[in-house]
Design a protein that fits this description.
The structure holds two protein chains of two kinds. By secondary structure, chain A is mainly α. Chain A is 51% helix and 0% strand. Chain A has a single domain, classed as ACP-like (Non-ribosomal Peptide Synthetase Peptidyl Carrier Protein, Chain A, Orthogonal Bundle). By secondary structure, chain B is α/β, with parallel strands linked by helices. The radius of gyration of chain B is 22 Å and the shape is globular. Classes of the chains: A mainly alpha, B alpha/beta. Chain A: It comes from Nonlabens agnitus.
Chain lengths: 76, 396
């Protein structure tokens, strides 16, 4: 579990006044499991880029945690 | 005339035209209520229209609006069929009130006659059999335009509003959707597809400025579709369409639109009521002419500083006013940052009195007075405002 990603997701959740998440796995779906809408996804990509220097959206739409981690691995 | 058997389909419901027409013939009508399902909303809307009831279309997202939810009983119109339903819609005296996205804090009401709303709807045998992907919010202008275009031609609506990428793709395929109209943001979230969709014949974009990369991606993903750009607004409904970036002024609109210092102005007769009282309404949209005959033009930018966030217009000054009203906030600057998902994302730089207030507390306060799309997604606490900074942090 990538802690920077967890931190970024929880910053988005806190900004919405929603409870933070403790754990996730590669199959966790950003929209269906974490309740992130398109505004949240936009914010999340910016926050992850600030923390890691990687634009996770560079190769297209991201839907799961696993896809984020894959982008981070190939981008860093 | 031959109509499709289904009027509306979503992941769990399918309703035929026969069934829908029975439901709208009689029963209760709510003049202003937010509905939990699109089908309930559509049923109430069309029932209201064919019974000549004035309606206010309430989006559940509108804050500070308290619908009375009082139901009225209407007379049973008896045995309707498709053609008599269409006649009843076309001849309805209903006034429909919708809300603009709030440019001055609270959203503004605009009231349209039904004839105004269906002005650009085209019905003919050419339009029969279409299956529409219904991607817009049904309570807003673009959603109404698609609804009437589909309904008056006996087409099917496949509800895609708010669905995830994977369900949109499977619904497009499973229901062999032929027509799709949505914002550039919707398409940016949808593409690229794993395999091209060959059933789409018409793909339309509206609500935001599109770009050539997106158009190219659409052509690859929907190889059999004609790509159209549509210019429409809450104030005036659909006005222009184009198959590329250049729009053409149709002859019936020649007397009703004009261009002053490159800004598009719309004649009051095309507008809903509740707008400014002047004869001409300045849209704030700046255009550029293709050639000297003044027929083809493209949109280049907005005259003012409005930021388009996923199709919603945000005025940075409204948000700055709210931020500055927060105790311990000394100064602020709100701006849009280009974003591949939303077109633009709202950000704010703020100067605070002391560090006892953080980003999350500020967002919590803003949620009381602003729409979700107006709230800055990134709030940076800075020592001083860098108002001269250029590039992506500069507000246009």
């Amino acid at each position: 579990m990538n802690l920077k990603v967890l931190e970024a997701i929880n910053e988005v959740k806190q900004g919405k006044g929603e409870p933070t998440v403790k754990v996730f796995n590669v199959d966790t779906h950003l929209r269906d499991d974490l309740g992130l809408d398109s505004f949240d996804l936009a914010e999340l990509t910016v926050r992850i880029e600030e923390k890691t220097g990687v634009d996770i959206f560079a190769n297209g739409v991201i839907e799961t945690i696993g896809e984020i981690e894959k982008q981070l691995e190939s981008g860093s | 005339m031959a109509v499709n058997s289904s009027f509306y389909i979503n992941d769990s419901t399918e309703i035929s035209y026969d069934n829908f027409i029975v439901q709208i013939a009689s029963g209760k009508i709510y003049k202003d209520k937010s509905f939990s399902t699109t089908l309930e909303f559509l049923t109430n809307l069309i029932k209201g229209i064919i019974h000549h009831v004035d309606l206010t279309l309430v989006d559940p997202l509108i804050q500070g609006y308290d619908p009375s939810e009082a139901a009225i009983d209407v007379e049973n119109l008896g045995k309707l069929d498709f053609n008599s339903m269409v006649d009843a819609i076309v001849n309805s005296t209903s006034k429909i009130t919708i809300f603009t996205s709030g440019t001055t804090g609270q959203p503004k009401k605009v009231t349209h006659s039904l004839s105004n709303l269906i002005r650009e709807v085209r019905t003919s045998t050419r339009h029969r059999g279409a299956i529409w992907g219904y991607a817009y919010n049904p309570t807003h202008m673009a959603g109404l335009q698609v609804l009437f275009q589909a309904l008056l031609n006996g087409n099917t609506l496949v509800d895609l509003f708010g669905k995830s990428k994977s369900s949109v793709i499977s619904m497009l395929e499973n229901h062999t959707v032929t027509h799709l109209s949505a914002t550039p943001t919707f398409y940016r979230l949808l593409l690229p597809l794993n395999r091209p969709n060959t059933s789409l014949k018409s793909v339309s974009l509206g609500g935001e400025k599109s770009d050539t990369l997106l158009i190219e991606n659409l052509k690859t993903s929907f190889p059999n579709a004609k790509i159209n750009n549509i210019y429409a607004s809450t104030e005036a409904g659909t006005l222009f369409s184009a198959d590329g970036e250049y729009f053409y002024v149709k002859s019936h609109l020649l007397e009703k639109v004009r261009f002053r210092k490159s800004e598009l102005e719309i004649h009051a007769s095309l507008l809903g009521s509740g707008m400014a009282d002047q004869e001409w309404y300045a849209t704030g949209d700046l255009v550029e002419w293709k050639d000297d005959d003044k027929k083809y033009f493209k949109f280049v930018s907005r005259k003012n500083e409005m930021v388009n966030v996923g199709g919603n217009k945000v005025n940075p000054h409204d948000i700055e006013t709210q931020l500055k009203s927060i105790e311990r906030v000394i100064d602020c600057l709100v701006y849009g940052v280009p974003n591949p998902i939303l077109g633009n994302m709202i950000c704010a730089d703020i100067v605070v009195k002391d560090s006892s207030i953080d980003e999350f507390t500020i967002k919590k306060i803003l949620r009381n007075n602003l729409e979700n799309y107006q709230i800055p997604r990134k709030i940076n606490i800075v020592d001083e405002l860098k108002t001269t900074r250029t590039g992506k942090l500069k507000r246009k």
